[in-house]
Design a protein that fits this description.
Length: 198
């Protein structure tokens, strides 16, 4: 049952928007959510191969000085995936975050990325199809979740907010008769990557 599963809700901050043009991860933030409660946390700054631009610093608050002694991306993503294990992963606008994770798997010869990935953006569009806006700042208001906009765009804070949104969404799905992962996997805009058992 979806309500009984444990999830890793994660968010990445990056040097830019284009993984195909060499942008990379500068922060991984994640929480483990089970039965509506956050049971574990992961937060790691990562030193990128190029300097963080002032534009990205203005958005995220992450400076070059903050990451100068941080781990590199290979160590960071390996630590993160060890922490994740084979749990289903959840992100808001997950295709963006997934592109950086899958590129890291490719760059660092980590094998095949094989976790199920659920997108709360797709979930929101499904559950609230009459609504126009589905960004994180809108959803925390819609679902009555405490939120400090000044902390937005830090991976740890955004992952926690997304986890609280996910919990509310899982309850709505259950009331709509979508109770299992197999039920949810019928919606490709929600489950954007299916786990393939090896």
């Amino acid at each position: 049952m979806l309500l009984d599963l444990e999830y890793v809700v994660f968010d990445l901050e990056t040097t830019g928007l284009r993984v195909s043009e060499g942008d990379s991860i500068i922060e991984i933030g994640a929480v483990k959510l089970k039965n509506g409660s956050i049971i574990d946390r992961f937060d790691l700054l990562i030193k990128p191969p190029k300097e963080i631009s002032s534009e990205i610093t203005n958005i995220t608050g992450i400076t070059n000085d903050m990451v100068k002694d941080a781990v590199d991306e290979e160590i960071g993503i390996k630590k993160f995936m060890e922490w994740v294990g084979d749990l289903p992963m959840v992100a808001h606008n997950a295709r963006f975050d997934l592109s950086f994770v899958e590129m890291a798997f490719l760059k660092y010869d980590m094998g095949r990325f094989n976790n199920t990935v659920i997108d709360t953006l797709g979930l929101s569009r499904y559950l609230e199809s009459n609504e126009r806006f589905h960004n994180l700042a809108t959803l925390v208001i819609r679902y009555n979740i405490d939120w400090d906009e000044d902390k937005h765009h830090r991976a740890d804070y955004d992952s926690e907010g997304t986890a609280h949104i996910l919990d509310k969404m899982l309850n709505k799905l259950d009331k709509n008769g979508i109770k299992t992962m197999d039920d949810l996997k019928r919606y490709r805009s929600i489950v954007i990557k299916n786990r393939v058992d090896r």
